[in-house]
Amino acid sequence: MSVTTAELAPSEPTTPPTAQPDGLAPARRWERIALAALLLGTAAAYLWNIGVNAMGNSFYAAAVWSGSRDWKALLFGSLDPGNFITVDKPPVSQWVMGLSGQLFGFSSASMLAPQAIMAVGAVALMYAAVVRATGNRGAGLLAGIVLAVTPVVALMFRFNNPDAVMVLLMTAAAYCTVRALPRASLRWIVLAGVALGFAFLAKMLEGLMVLPALGPAYVIAAPASIRARLLHSLAAVGALIVSSGWFVLLTILWPADSRPYLAVSKDNTFMDLVLGYNGFARYLGKNHMGGDNKNPFELPEGYQIPEALKQGGFGGGFGSGPDRMFTGEIGFEISWLLPAALVAFTLVLLSRGRRPRTDLIRGSALVFGLWLVIDSALFSGMKAGMHAYYTLAVAPAIAGCVAIGAYEVWRRRTEGFGRVGAAALILSAGIWSFVLLQRDSDWQPWLRWTVLAASVIVALALLVLSLPPAARWDRRRTRATTALLIAGVLASLAGSTAYAAATLPQAHTGGSPTVGPARPKQSGPADQFRRRLSTLMGGQADPQLVALLQQTNTRWSAAIDRSSPAAGLELASRTPVLAIGGFTSEDPVPILPKFQQMVRDHAITYYLIPEVELPDSWRVDPKPADPSSPAQPNAPHGIWRPAGNTEILAWVTAHYTATHHFGDMAVYDLTAPPH
After folding, report:
1. CB-based contacts of 66: which residues, under 8 Å, 6+ apart?
2. Is 642 strand, coil or helix?
3. What does the alpha-carbon distance between residue 89 and residue 278 come to, in Å, rounded to a whole number?
4. I need a labelling partner for 34 at 20 to 30 A (CA). Which of 3, 216, 360, 560 fits?
5. What angle do CA 208, 349, 361 make, to 5 degrees?
């Protein structure tokens, strides 16, 4: 096969290379029908049986329930309607779901339906951004489809974590930037800053990870003087600061003793939360009880947790490095079209390398391509606290790159560059889909071979058509190329679409949901012990304990270490539960004197503490544990009391007697006279 130099060189396109937004032709009938089908199909797929996810992540669901009952809890994102402590993220996501709960009553559907509707909004924004970039509605439809069939999108836009609203706002910022590019629009670039400001209030610094892509793309490609471009960028930064800073200022000006404690901050300030636990501490591996932090759940002296239980852990478990985006659960969630997106970005830069600085297609490709490269590099380098679903943040970037790249090779499909480029796109997507499906080889084994065969056949056919043609074959070859490109797109999307479809009907709960078909439940000793300790992570509460809490009439029905079990008890009993120590059990609230005052004021009815009998096989020292040790105050021999605030535990167990035991949970009645 040979391709001539003339074929590889950029040539005049058959459609305007920098189609201007104001010059967009009205949508044809089939285009309007296709867009309506895309949006309605996304809504139907994402809203269908959404109750299967129940409360999703009970930690955030408890905050939604609290916000549906109390306006202050809604404003600050409080875990409990008593406004003792917040969740570990800013409250934008809770605002949306909490308001839905106030309007329609709190339920799984009222909480999760807004998340699914956000998916429709994100798909619509992707469509609009790519149409504005290319002037081609077919490319916009492809961008929306790619986003909708990405497995992590199908997972997280039906879940109640803050990621959905954050990514919607990041996509809105990218759309506004693309709108700003053709005429260096100050209004649109400022709106991009506003969107990023609220993305920051959804998930802090992660919401700003797209900023290093949007800013340079505007400065490079906007048709204005460098001074004007820089001033516009500064105005956008100012809009970002205003749209996010008002909430920061609110937390400063609001008296600390009349608002909830800002969870996982060391000093009850918002910026410590931003720069510490949810910022540099996460990136450097110094949060989630890692790095320099002390594990508050030490076993009693003489016991050691087995290696089998340590492996797997909760949450991350993904080694950092350049291959992180392609391996393990992360690979299944986001990487299906990641190689194709990188190829597409490269093709656009090569194809439009000689265009003017203000070329709209290249500028838009920079928006999505830089977003993809920068965010992927940041995720790959994150040291700890990395969940696979965080990669939802690059899903719109992949969709934008693939769609703009596909448009560019489609535009040049009569040339060797277009056909060779299309073959590279299809092969990269098809081969990588085969690799991912091979990792789950027991599921639909026919699919991986079908995807691989179709991709290879289409790519080879395109390469054959790139051979120097006989003139009389030109029209036939063009028709064949068009048919092959359509077939290649279908093959490229097949693996991702199938895995996203397999994700939708599965029940997803807890802190680390996963994509794909149902997986068999592990039944080893370590897994059984994890399930036994599910209360520690907000698992299902004992019905008798729930009934006991429902009979209380104090401000908080109970107090328990950590936010996750407190959240689970709140949702089960619909009563406020005070979370001692917050999410990681390391927050310095309440201190012992404050807790004692709460007890004297009859603000709390029960104190709850797990009392777990440890297997003898975990013994590494024949000597019995010291019940007076700080980690196990007053604990009977062989009993583990996992508590972060050992001062409160010691005081309660020294002055009160457990009145009930429900499974592994001991209940202390704080309204009884102390002894």
Report:
1. 73, 74, 78, 79, 80, 81, 98, 570, 576
2. coil
3. 8
4. 360
5. 70
Between strands 658-662 and 577-580, the pairing is unpaired
CA–CA gap between residue 65 and residue 281 (Å, rounded): 29
How many alpha carbons lie under 13 Å from residue 448 in its C-beta half-sphere? Answer: 16
For residue 601, the model assigns a pLDDT of 96
Give the SS3 label for residue 520.
Answer: coil
Split the chain (675 residues) into runs of 10 and give each run's mean pLDDT: 39 40 77 97 97 95 97 97 95 97 97 98 98 96 98 98 97 98 97 98 94 97 97 98 97 95 92 76 58 54 66 48 91 97 98 95 98 95 84 98 97 92 97 96 95 96 79 71 93 97 94 88 60 61 94 97 94 96 91 97 96 76 60 68 88 94 92 91
Tokens of 278: 């949810």
For 635-645, write each residue's pLDDT tens digit: 666 678 888 89
Give which of 128, 134, 183, 132 is closest to 21, Cα–Cα.
Answer: 132
The pLDDT value given to residue 529: 61
What is the rounded end-to-end Cα distance, in angstroms, of the chain? 91
CA atoms within 13 A on the CB side of 405: 34
Name the residue with tokens 């965080």.
390
Structure tokens at 68: 């549906």
CA 375 vs. chain centroid, Å, equals 13
| C-beta separation of 206 from 394 below 8 A | no
* Beta-bridge partners for 261: 85
Residue of 467, 375, 448 whose CA lies nearest to 163: 375
**What three-state secondary structure class fits 560?**
strand
Dihedrals φ, ψ of 634, to 5°? 60, 25
Cβ-Cβ contacts under 8 Å for 475 (sequence gap 6 or more):
none
Indicate left, alpha or beta for 313 from its phi (over 0: left) and psi (-120 to 50: alpha). Answer: left
Sign of the torsion angle spanned by Cα atoms 451, 456, 459, 461: negative
Coil, strand, or helix at residue 623?
A: coil
Q: Which residue type does 268 have?
A: N
Note the helical H segments in 254-381.
270-275, 281-284, 307-310, 328-334, 338-351, 360-381
* Beta strands 639-640 and 612-613, pairing class: antiparallel
C-alpha 264/C-alpha 281 separation (Å) is: 11
Q: Which residue has the tokens 């390469």?
A: 463
The Cα 298–Cα 332 span in angstroms is 34
CA 543 to chain centre: 32
Q: The tokens 């916009």 sit on which residue? A: 140
Distance from C-alpha of 117 to C-alpha of 65, rounded to nearest angstrom: 19
For residue 271, what are its two tokens? 């910026």
Secondary structure element (H or E) that encloses residue 303, with its range: none
pLDDT by residue (tens digit) across 537-553? Answer: 566 788 999 999 999 99
Q: Is 385 left (phi over 0), alpha (psi -120 to 50) or beta?
A: left
Rounded-to-integer distance, Cα 556 and Cα 534, Å: 22
Secondary structure of residue 624 in the 3-state scheme? coil
Output the six-digit token pair for 190: 């400022």
- Kindly provide the b/e burial profile for residues 370-385, where b requires at least 16 CB atoms within 10 angstroms of the residue's own CB: bbbbbbbebbbebbbb
What's 113's DSSP letter?
H
Q: Tell me the HSE value of 457 on the side-chain side, using a 13 A CA sphere.
A: 12
Question: Are 313 and 289 in contact, with CB atoms under 8 Å apart?
Answer: no
- Residue 339: cis peptide before it, omega within 30 degrees of 0: no
Strands, sheet with 604-610, edge to edge from the N-terminal-most edge strand:
577-580, 556-561, 604-610, 665-669, 658-662
Residue 487: Cβ-neighbour burial (10 angstroms; 0-12, 13-18, 19+): middle
